[in-house]
């Protein structure tokens, strides 16, 4: 048995169900070995798309994904998607063939490349192929993006056959968390707020029970949107996407507990959202995350679910004394009613800025009106994947999701152009749900080639393009100072026609009435993706992009 075959068998035996990629000579054998073992290969149009598909699949499925690319340019083509995954701690193994001869035109320093973007690096050895491949998979399963180097000369080396067994993924070694200071802070608080981040995505139940025990309100960072969906005390996303009510309530908190969130500038509005008088606690399994974005008063090292359960255990035992969630607290019937009435962006009044056709200018639709109309049309069981750009807050704030797996938000690297492929990976992971890819026109044009993949897979995919004929973030950032904008504005383009050229259904939307074909498409059978080119009004910039540019 050759090493490439061993690697494929080991990764499949560990649980790899799908491998995304573009096949060349360097990854031909290992990819075929995976397919022969039982994995499904999803052929992308470009390695960059394949990387984002693998990222979206892992985020949505909660399992390890595989990315298979050619040596040299195959790896570098995938680099932006790989960087997004590494910064997001996506569980992914990148099968990266290595040309090890320094004079080879395919040679790149893979360990240095992985280190540069924050990924782990493992290499397969001829005499330890099964051990090395298994170790890479288990490292990914613990929450890392792993580049697995596959030297070309090693892949074809004959080695001992492998048929198992598969060692289990060892749990992260933990000690009993020190929760007494956190417990004391909860006991003293009258207006506590929990903000759950990426590191709390698997901890809904213990966090909800602990919040009930201490009267806390529940909020999330954008990366964890949907975590508390359906809970009556959920005030949704903190930070730039926060509703006016959420901002008001977080601003009145006397205790903020960040669960698996580093409280970055997006989540805290550059520190302005959390009052200076509040006690701030950070809970994270990674001690290096403590205080990286703002000072905190208390830290608790440990997995989020473990810490929450430990605090609950102390409360149940009665040894800690009760937490008074009543007198002086804010879980009142009146606040519950306010959250029901004003806790969603759908309930916040606005002045519609859509423009009717006049003076030769075609009509445009307000992106808020578009998003609200789509939210009414779409089935509740959905996955929403959002690209980056000036538009991104509209789908993030106006489109509800059923749970945390229903929101795929690739913003760790702030690259545009990743959303379409991420949505394809999410659709592969959850074919039982309608997947919605929300894109700007710039990101769509960058990634439209992956519509070939969408058509090939016959995925139930709705692509909504918020089309303002510009790189809107730059337009609204630089226009007030009178800078020329010709480099970031473009003639109107029929993006629906481009989509039809790829084999999708295409629709141009300028008014709410133009969305009627979406209703018919949703009724079935949805065997071809539908691309909606929504010509949105661009009268003003978005407040969340103002926050973003403050971080540059």
UniProtKB/TrEMBL annotation:
<dbReference type="InterPro" id="IPR011766">
    <property type="entry name" value="TPP_enzyme_TPP-bd"/>
</dbReference>
<dbReference type="Pfam" id="PF02776">
    <property type="entry name" value="TPP_enzyme_N"/>
</dbReference>
<protein>
    <submittedName>
        <fullName>Thiamine pyrophosphate-dependent acetolactate synthase large subunit-like protein</fullName>
    </submittedName>
</protein>
<dbReference type="InterPro" id="IPR012001">
    <property type="entry name" value="Thiamin_PyroP_enz_TPP-bd_dom"/>
</dbReference>
<dbReference type="Pfam" id="PF02775">
    <property type="entry name" value="TPP_enzyme_C"/>
</dbReference>
<dbReference type="Pfam" id="PF00205">
    <property type="entry name" value="TPP_enzyme_M"/>
</dbReference>
<dbReference type="InterPro" id="IPR012000">
    <property type="entry name" value="Thiamin_PyroP_enz_cen_dom"/>
</dbReference>
<comment type="similarity">
    <text>Belongs to the TPP enzyme family.</text>
</comment>
<feature type="domain" description="Thiamine pyrophosphate enzyme central">
    <location>
        <begin position="180"/>
        <end position="310"/>
    </location>
</feature>
<dbReference type="InterPro" id="IPR029035">
    <property type="entry name" value="DHS-like_NAD/FAD-binding_dom"/>
</dbReference>
<dbReference type="InterPro" id="IPR045229">
    <property type="entry name" value="TPP_enz"/>
</dbReference>
<dbReference type="InterPro" id="IPR029061">
    <property type="entry name" value="THDP-binding"/>
</dbReference>
<feature type="domain" description="Thiamine pyrophosphate enzyme TPP-binding">
    <location>
        <begin position="407"/>
        <end position="533"/>
    </location>
</feature>
<keyword id="KW-0786">Thiamine pyrophosphate</keyword>
<feature type="domain" description="Thiamine pyrophosphate enzyme N-terminal TPP-binding">
    <location>
        <begin position="1"/>
        <end position="100"/>
    </location>
</feature>
